[in-house]
Description:
By secondary structure, the protein is an alpha+beta fold. The protein has two domains: 1-11 and 45-60 and 129-182, no CATH class; 61-126, Arc Repressor Mutant, subunit A, CATH 1.10.10. The protein contains nine helices and five strands. It has a five-stranded mixed β-sheet. Helix 3 (62-73) packs antiparallel against helix 4 and helix 3 (62-73) packs across helix 7. The radius of gyration is 22 Å and the shape is elongated.
Amino acid sequence: xxxxxxxxxxxxxxxxxxxxSRLDAAWFQPKAALIDTLxxxxxxxxxxxxxxxxxxxxxxxxxxxxxxxxxxxxISGGVLQGLRRCIPAGLDSTIDDAxxxxxxxRIACQEPNLKCLIDLxxxxxxxxxxxxxxxxxxxxxxxxxxxxxxxRTIENEWTTEFPLPVLEEFGLQKICLEDAVK
Length: 182
C-alpha cells in the first residue's frame, strides 16, 4: 500500500458498528462535520498525521466565456445580450457545440469583431474560472503533504493545488466518498 494515501474503498473495510456510532451522532451535523469525522477516522486507522482536501476547478460555460471576453474587449452589453440569446438554452457545453447548433450564432460570427470575440472566448473557456474544495475526497499521508504536493489554504484547511485527475495520474491513491458509495 502506498504510504502517502489510502485505498478508495476504505468504508467497505470498516465495521458497520463504527459507522453506526459515528453517524448517529453526526447525522444532523453539516456535511463538513461528517467529512471531518471520516478524515479523522482514516488518519487514525492508517496511522497518518497529515491530511489535505482536494481542489476542484470550475470551467466557464459558452455563455460565460463570451460575456467575460466581450466585456474585456469593450463590446456593448446589447451586442453581448444578442449573442447570449443566440446560444441554445440549457447548453452548458462548448462554444463549438453552440456554433454547431445555432445558425444565428454562426451568422453573427461572420463580423470581424465578433469572430475575434468567439476565438478568444474559445481559449478562455478552457481556463479555470473558479476554484472550490472537493466535498467528498481527500488525501492523507504519514509525511507532510506539502513536501510532495503544492498546497493552498482555503477556509483554514490545506487543499492540494492539483485536482483529482492529476493526483490519480501521479499514482496517488485517494479516498473519494463518491466512489465508495457507488
